[in-house]
Amino acid sequence: MGNLEMNSIKAKPKVNASVKARKTASLQQWTTGIILALGGFLVSIPFIWMILSAFKPEMEVMQIPPTFIPNEFTLENFTNLFENMNFTVYLRNTIIVVLCSFVGLFLNAMAGYAFAKYQFKGREKLFYLVLATMMIPGQVTMIPVYLILNQLHLTNTMAGIVLPGLVGAFSIFLFRQFMSTIPDELLEAARLDGASEFRVFAQIILPISKPILAVQGILTFIAGWNSFLWPLIIANDEKLYTLSVGLSLLKGQYGGNFALQMAGSTFMVVPIVIIFMLFQKHIIEGYTISGMK
Fold it and tell me: Do residue 97 and residue 220 come from a single domain?
């Protein structure tokens, strides 16, 4: 009995220390969470104010002291964007760029598959050459690409806007890294069953590659939706401008109409934020998987 009592007395400090450690960890988690929540709220205030101001009349946006929540909700600013500022044309062009970028995503996947699973002479050297292009700033190649498209009479055309962005070294790299881990035995079994190379790629490789496809799909959408510099350079006709270029024109032509600018910025930014919030898990997981492979 004496030994049992001594053991129980020794065990009590250990239990108390464990409980105290858990409480300390829980307190630290709550403190960190509160600090991050406050920081996130402070950072998001200008963004929230922009969205709310898009639904205010111009007089309310300019009044002092300013109002945070609109006293009178109105859609007049968005109506002006599409009726008087050609935002319908800009939106159409942006959607075309995004859809063509998804075609380029399919080409990048095919290139990554070739580098990962096909054996051909100079494969490694060619892959390193593709990787080397990632170190060249895009601004350096703009003039040569423009001159090439000019020789092909593709300047001031939608094809000239879309073609340079169809393929990208970073996307090819991610696809190659992921697809190189797919077992070769799986592909050989499909070939023995009579599947063509394209069928193997479309029905086996692509379904397995859904995580990296999700990542690249999201990044492709964001890049296409935000396309600004190249459409501005290659297009002289306003009918070929994208939303980003149209928003820049809006700030130049209607610099004093802050409500209209807020509406344009809201229409430009909110879809990107929604896409990122819905699919941020896939972005993080995709980068993690590619890095581990």
Answer: yes
